[in-house]
Amino acid sequence: MNTMIATESEAAPPHEPSSHEGHHGGHHGASLAALTFGALGVVFGDIGTSPLYTLKECLLAAGGEKATNEDLFGILSLMFWSLFLVVTIKYLVFVMQAHHDGEGGIFSLLALVPERFRTKSTGGGKVTLMALLAVIGASLLYGDGVITPAISVLSAVEGLADVSPRFSSLVVPITCVILIALFAIQRFGTGSVGKLFGPVMVLWFVTMALLGVYHIVQEPRILTALSPHHGLVFFQHHGLRGMLILGSVVLVVTGGEALYADMGHFGIRPIRLAWMAFVLPALVLGYLGQGALILRDPKVIEHPFFAMVPNGLWRYLLVALSSAATVIASQALISGAFSLTRQAMVLGYLPRMTIKHTAYHTEGQIYIPEVNALLGIGCLALVLTFRHSVKLAAAYGIAVTGTMAITSILYYIVIRNTWGWSRLKAGALLLLFLGLDIPFLLANLFKFFEGGYIPMLIGAGLIAGMLIWSRGRTLVMEQYAHRYPSLESAKPALDRSLAARVPGSGVFLAPSPDHVPPTLVHIVERSRSLHEVVVFLTVHKTTTAVVPANSRYQVTNLGDGFYKLVVSFGFMEEPLLVPVLQEITRAGLIPFNPEDTTYYVGHESVIAEDESMINLVAENIFAYLNRNAVNEEKRYGMPVNQVVEIGTRIVI
């Protein structure tokens, strides 16, 4: 029942976009400058390192050395307008207004819609089409989150090997060491990582912008590539092949979805400010600078970025800086995976894991050890299997474009049904967004057999796991709701079953303060006895860092030795129950001794009523996830020798 406790106590109602600077948006007093600086080191690493390879890949797809100046202008035009329309307009202006208590990401859209879009009234644990789309989109983003660190770090180390061939045999070992170090530092928190990476990314963007300006001055006519006319002409000249080049152009916006997923770590305003004032201008100048250089010397088409500086010391320094920046690029999706996981737990699509909050000023800055470990293992497996970044390059983008298209559809449902936009207004915006997303997605599907199947396979496994967990938990809770009523209605039956009240006290963890804990019912049914003092304990999580002492707990005397206790913890606090119970004892609110108290926690064994093969497989997966969810006694610091776990067999 661990996950359902989280679902009932942490889920919040949807709200209007006008409140987008809620408790996350303000970030509890953290300065705008500090959050903006941190966002540079975390949120923009992926999209900020695209100039290393995007223009080169696009030109190679357009024919390489056979590409004309008109092709160059057309590709640069497509890249600029993709950045402007997809990242600036779609995400920063529109989509990022849709958040759930300051958290972004695809599950936030699911949390914002009316209940009928999330669950079926027919019961049975089935999910709606919108919930299915959200699960698919999130799973694809997880798949890309595994690929991004692997290809980013591997390509960085390969760049060092190009400068010094003697490192060639050490590329894979060095990559593995860097990946292990990258995931090891995640426990220090997104904010701390941002402070570490921030200065490097500032230097990266400044360097890219200055190099771009230098080369633009040499060939100022490259500025005309900003006109959308050149992009349209490119499609006219190349037809279907011109559309396929979008599979390479999409690299310019890879990382855009991470801006939305990482919103809870830094807030809307810092991300918007960093993008508009710093990142977007630097990217545009960097791309135009490469284009200007190619106009003067078409031979540099295979390595236009590094050719922006003279060979020798400056080239070595640029390779070193780009290597550091490319390693940082993986941070955005790692942080986004943490946010998505917490949202999935709150919405009931993943079992409870260990969430560690790493900053007093920002609730969204979290660290989840289990997710961090799985991502790290996945990245290492990809590196050891493929060993070359070029073999992973084809997989880059297919998962993100799928997520982008799903985000557009879910956003339409939010603005239409939650915010009350007219069908015409919402439909026009949907057509605009899908007009951007669908061509990118179709172009990337052609890369499926070249490596695009990797994030799809990862996503398929996660989709199955999420749907099985959601269906299983829903069916289990339906069984509990049917079998265990409220205290008032259950009291007569409990009294009839009780043969004796024994000395001592028992604390029963309750998912809701308004219902009888299942563990209590089982104790009474099996032993026909109950402690003289019985406490129904519900743990409530708040959105503040630390709960004031006078708001820590609420005690209600229900009579006949029964008490209802609601304990609140802030997101930066360890939810340790024993110190709170000791304080309640000293205050004389409940007559019991915590050292002599028995704590009852529940654990259910699920049995599938339908014994067909597919249901047996699903049951085994659900049972495995349920067994490995974080135990209540571990999470709440209950003394192990005073805990009694009550097993329940649930038929679904």
Question: How are the SSEs placed, and which strands pair?
Answer:
Elements: H1 2-10, H2 23-26, H3 32-42, H4 45-48, H5 54-61, H6 69-94, H7 106-112, H8 129-163, H9 171-184, H10 190-218, H11 228-244, H12 246-249, H13 256-261, H14 263-266, H15 268-296, H16 313-328, H17 331-346, E1 356-357, E2 366-367, H18 369-386, H19 389-393, H20 398-417, H21 423-445, H22 453-483, H23 487-497, E3 500-509, H24 518-527, E4 529-541, E5 553-559, E6 562-569, H25 577-586, E7 597-607, H26 613-628, H27 632-635, E8 643-651
Parallel strand pairs: 3-4, 3-7, 4-6, 7-8
Antiparallel strand pairs: 1-2, 5-6
Report on the structure:
The two termini are 15 Å apart. The N terminus is likely disordered. This protein folds into 2 domains: 439 residues, Amino acid/polyamine transporter I (Up-down Bundle), CATH 1.20.1740; 168 residues, no CATH class. Strands 5-6-4-3-7-8 form a 6-stranded mixed sheet. It has 652 residues and is an alpha/beta fold. The longest helix has 35 residues.
Brief write-up:
The chain has 652 residues and is of the alpha/beta class. Helix content is 59%, strand content 10%. Strands 5-6-4-3-7-8 form a six-stranded mixed sheet.
Feature tags:
six-stranded mixed beta sheet, 652 residues, alpha/beta, 27 helices, two-stranded antiparallel ribbon, elongated, 2 domains, disordered N terminus, Amino acid/polyamine transporter I
The CATH topology of the largest domain is what? Amino acid/polyamine transporter I
Shape: elongated
Helical element count? 27
Mean pLDDT: 77
Oligomeric state of this protein:
single chain
Note the main sheet.
6 strands, mixed
Number of strands: 8
How far is it from the N-terminal to the C-terminal residue, by CA?
15 Å
Number of domains: 2
Low-confidence stretches: 1-29, 121-125
The CATH H-level superfamily of the largest domain is: Amino acid/polyamine transporter I
Q: Percent of residues in beta strands?
A: 5-15%
Known CATH architecture of the largest domain? Up-down Bundle
Helical percentage: 55-70%
Structure class: alpha/beta
| Strand order, sheet with most strands | 5-6-4-3-7-8
